[in-house]
Write a structure and sequence with these properties.
Blueprint lengths: L17 H19 L3 E11 L25 E8 L4 E7 L5 H17 L1 H8 L3 E5 L8 H9 L3 E4 L9 H12 L9
Parallel strand pairs: 1-4, 4-5
Antiparallel strand pairs: 1-2, 2-3
């Protein structure tokens, strides 16, 4: 077989597969149905920020097995965001790795924030709120799926490699571009 190196402009090559294109069409139909039913879509996503955005470079012997102090390790800071087209409903910073249990605990806090807001609480009681999540593996965990089922929540999972449908991604992009040259020691 002959191979040719090509550069794709702006998108992952998996974005253009026939399967993913069909999934995106189905996703758009679901979103249109939700909008026509006068439901509110709450977009949820998480991102990671480094406390230092500069790379740390150092020479180290291949055979060197010594552990070095954590001063040289870049610490991660995660941000989770829940937004509608009009406002930010909830956000939280956390430092642990994201998994199904961490995300379920945060999702419980998001539901509490929604219940405290009179406008969104009425919509939640009438089952008029739909949550949009990307396809991270911990969004499909059994614990989280049981949580969605027990709370009678409507969930739409985004199409693979299609972050342009999630409003959170635009906010994250703005934040990261604005503070890309900044070095944080704490937040």
């Amino acid at each position: 077989m002959n191979y040719r190196y090509i550069t794709l402009k702006g998108k992952n090559k998996k974005y253009f597969t026939k399967k993913n294109t069909n999934i995106r069409k189905i996703l758009i139909r679901k979103l249109i149905e939700v909008i026509y039913d006068d439901e509110i879509i709450v977009f949820l996503d998480e991102t990671t920020f480094n406390q230092r955005n500069k790379r740390i470079k150092a020479w180290r012997s291949i055979n060197d097995k010594n552990d070095y102090p954590e001063e040289g390790i870049i610490k991660r800071l995660n941000l989770i965001l829940a937004v509608t087209k009009n406002e930010i409903i909830y956000y939280e910073y956390y430092t642990e790795n994201t998994n199904t249990l961490v995300f379920t605990n945060i999702f419980e806090k998001i539901l509490i924030a929604i219940k405290m807001n009179m406008k969104y609480n009425k919509l939640l009681q009438n089952n008029k709120i739909c949550f949009y999540l990307d396809n991270a593996t911990y969004h499909h965990g059994k614990v989280l799926m049981n949580f969605f089922f027990l709370n009678n929540l409507k969930i739409i999972f985004g199409a693979p490699y299609s972050c342009e449908y999630n409003l959170c991604e635009y906010i994250f992009s703005y934040i990261k571009n604005k503070y890309s040259k900044t070095s944080f020691t704490c937040l």
